[in-house]
Amino acid sequence: MGEAGAQLAALLCTDYRYLKAEKLSLAMIKGCVPVDGDTYDVPLQVATAEARYKSLKQPPPKMGYADKFGTPQQQRDLSAVRHIARNKLIPPFLILHVADDTDTTAQAHRLWSELREAGIEAKMFGAAGTDHVKLDRDLGVPGDPSTAELFAFVDAVLKR
User: Fold this and answer.
1) How far apart are CA 53 and CA 34, in angstroms?
2) Which of 33-42, 55-64, 136-145 bottoms out in mean pLDDT, i.e. has the lowest?
3) What is the pLDDT of residue 51?
């Protein structure tokens, strides 16, 4: 899943409320692989985008991050990093991202560092020489480096 899908996958794997509403538990999830997300920490991305527009003397877009994610409280609540804590049964993560994309690389690192700080197994993999669409499209293609990382991750978590 890319961008919105990555944010939702990470949120589902860190905030137990969504599974609990369906009478399920985080314990049933063996691993999480968000792909090239840019909103694991929504307030950080809102601030980054606003600073970028201001520095470039550009008007903000008609439907920017703040518009999409709502109030500051809603932005925090929709941020996977805000729900990470020790002993919550959060599964291991493989965070795939486009190595040359500043936003998704920064957000991947933010998610990775919060997971590691909480003692949760997490690995980042920056795909080189690609973009968001190609990264998504090439997952599953033999010889693709991101696919190799994904298959190794899935193999490891299924052996547990």
Assistant:
1) 27
2) 55-64
3) 83
58 and 115 part of one domain:
no
DSSP conformation class of 60:
P
The sign one gets for the Cα dihedral 81, 87, 90, 96 is: positive
User: Angle 102-117/42-55 helices, nearest 10 degrees?
Assistant: 150
Triad 100, 55, 4: Cα angle to 5°: 45
Confidence of residue 3 (pLDDT cuts 50, 70, 90): low
Residue 25: CB atoms within 10 Å: 11
Range of the domain at 116: 4-40+83-158
Neighbours of 47 (CB within 10 A): 14
In this structure, the answer to whether residues 97 and 112 fall within a common structural domain is yes
Whether residues 24 and 71 fall in one domain: no
Instruction: Tell me which residue has tokens 């493989």.
Output: 94
Please give the single-letter amino acid code of residue 8.
L
Residue 25 CB partners (closer than 8 Å, separation 6+): 16, 19, 89
CB 103 within 8 A of CB 84: no
Tell me whether strands 93-98 and 122-127 are parallel, antiparallel or unpaired.
parallel
